[in-house]
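Input set for joint prediction.
Command: fold jointly, output tokens.
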Amino acid sequence: MKARTLDFQGMEIVYELLANTIDEVGKDKEALFLSKLCLMLAHEIPDISKIEAAVAVARQIEQGTM
Amino acid sequence: MRPAGRAELDSLYFDYPEYEWERPCELDGKTPLHPVVIAGAGPVGLTAAVALARRGIASVLLEKKNTLNDGSRAICVSRYSYETLQQLGLHEPFVAKGLGWTHGQCYYRGETVHRFEMPHSEQERFLPMYNIQQQYIEQFLMDKASEYPDLIDLRWQSEVTGLQSSDQGVELNVRCPGGEYSLRAQYLLAADGGKSPTRKMLDLRLNGENLPGNYVIADIRMEHDFPTERRSFFESAANPNATILVHKEPDNIWRIDWQILDSEDPDAAIEEGTIRQRVQAILAMIGHDGPWELEWWSMYTANTLCLDDYRHGRVLFIGDAAHIVPIFGVRGLNNGFADAVNVAWKLAYVLDGGADEKLLDSYTQERRGATLDVFLNAGKSSRFMTPPSRGYALMRKAVLELSLSEEFTRPFADPRQVLPYTYKESPLTIEHAQEQAFAGGCPAGSAAINRRLSTGDFLLDHLGSGFTGLYFTTQDAVPDAVLDLFSELGASDTHFKPVVVSRNELPQGGYEFLLDAQNSIFSGYAAQDDTFYLLRPDRHIAARWCTTESRQVTRALRIALGEIK
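tokens >
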């Protein structure tokens, strides 16, 4: 069975929320803000392999577009 | 370094003794074969000499200087080290002088973000940590060494200038005020510090990493009303970009550490004027506006470096000569003490015929294992104290800012203070089937924990200088089979000490009896009727049995003495 994930409706809300909040905190603080957010979300996911997999995927995509 | 106008040993609070050079017999044509020569009379070399003397083994200590080390250097001594010092019979001056502490605080931009507590309970004789200057540590060790005039031959102003090592022993060239002479020994303990000349003479290299980050440590004297605890400051008003540490030491001395930034010129950063400016800003930040005096300062870098092998034939490396560790977590001298007593008990058995030389093979395995464990923990601490890259700096800032309101990120600021290392993988440790049967207690390889028997009387006060057998019983008498086991163990180890723990009074008879009226030892060791713990001379558990199996116990002793595997 596939693990429960956030549905698309939810993801749309996150998309808007992050876009607006990144604008709000400003360019100087965006990396720090996103770091804190990652730490807080990681704390809610008690499975290190999921987090490692997510970092690996994001990193791969990042390197592919560099 | 000292302030302008003061000599290297001109301290505000400590009178450096001057030790006399005495003419050694070698200069008069004698060439005795000494059992042990120790290069370096720092705290680690002195500890080894005292530990050997306690077992009746003579040593010659060679020291280039004629006094103790300058400056306060190491200051935090752990409970485990105090327990070691107690075994060597010298904890009293350390308790009297040291400032004990149990917790510390981390501040971020002036606000407390983490308060850490070190494990402590009424079962302990000693506090988790004590602050005491290295001069006192060395002085108390010297006082003890001088109680063994026939066993410890201290040779000041004596520098090793050459070394030849073979399977049979070592031959050293020593330069002293009376000339040069050759010194013969069965074993050499190299306790000659981070720049170890012995290491260079054997063409050995430390391997590992030099971590980024330079720190200044400065000792000042002031009347400052704050309890003994560790305070760390991140992004403080005194210096927003540098991490700062503050520790209290005896004699109104305070240790202040701060990071030198990459943007700073390291030479200018340790000039007296800069030091005074920095200290003044830090004192303003912690709320001290009274007078203060500068005592001493030095610079250090954080490194994780060690030898691949701590033993090279008849030469064994102990302390900083074997490994250089970052200061975070106070593992330098504490691990040096552990090296010294580890090698000393093994050498004592080998030299007095109680064990084969093979026993020494376990030294590197055990103590280098401890060093690698230090690297793991101190490496993490160092990367937090001094973020080595933009990524680490960003994560630290994220963690510290979150810590203001979020509990879960606070442990990142924990200094990961030294804990006793467990010799789990050691060839001397036995994890047999019965090990799994224990519901707690002290696992094989771990350090024996202390337990309170009554006011001022603790379990570890009763250990012997060799192996100790701890037998637990709820019967009215110790079974004959166990008394026979005690005799067998005594035949294998002439220093063996049998100890019986019971909740009821027992008849006397060839063992030391400990009344466990509070049930503290039974519970701490997860013991039941007929449980047996075999403790090594350094208090680590060689093996344990829920119910005693005599043949296994005698075999475990032979394994712990390196005889069989």
